[in-house]
Amino acid sequence: MDGENIVSGVDGKPDFEAMMSRFQSNRNLLVSGTLSYVVFDVIKYKGKCVTMPRLRGYSPKA
């Protein structure tokens, strides 16, 4: 699984400046927004490799 931490602003959109200030601070504090881990690459699901799923009705040409 691969992903990254994001901080969402009050509007729900990612706020890069808030994330940078959060991780560059000496304090373990998030003043506003929500810290989340967003997954964007899943390699296995329930023990099964899902990196190359078969497409229904697809037949590779020789």
Task: Explain what this protein looks like in three dimensions.
It contains one helix and four strands. The strands form two sheets. It has a two-stranded antiparallel ribbon. A two-stranded antiparallel sheet has the order 3-4. The relative contact order is 0.26. The mean pLDDT is 75. 15% of the residues lie in helices and 31% in strands.
Main attributes of the structure:
62 residues, alpha+beta, 4 strands, two-stranded antiparallel sheet, single chain, two-stranded antiparallel ribbon
What's a quick, concise take on this entry?
By secondary structure, this protein is an alpha+beta fold.
Oligomeric assembly = single chain
What's the main sheet like? 2 strands, antiparallel
Which structural class matches the secondary elements? alpha+beta
The total count of strands amounts to 4
Distance between the termini: 33 Å
What share of residues is helical? 10-25%
What is the gyration radius calculated from CA atoms? 18 Å
Described by the principal axes of the CA atoms, the overall outline is: elongated
In N-to-C order, the SSE pattern is: EHEEE
Strand order of the largest sheet: 1-2
State mean pLDDT (0 to 100 scale).
75
Strand content: 25-35%
Please work out how many helical segments DSSP would assign.
Answer: 1
Low-confidence stretches: none
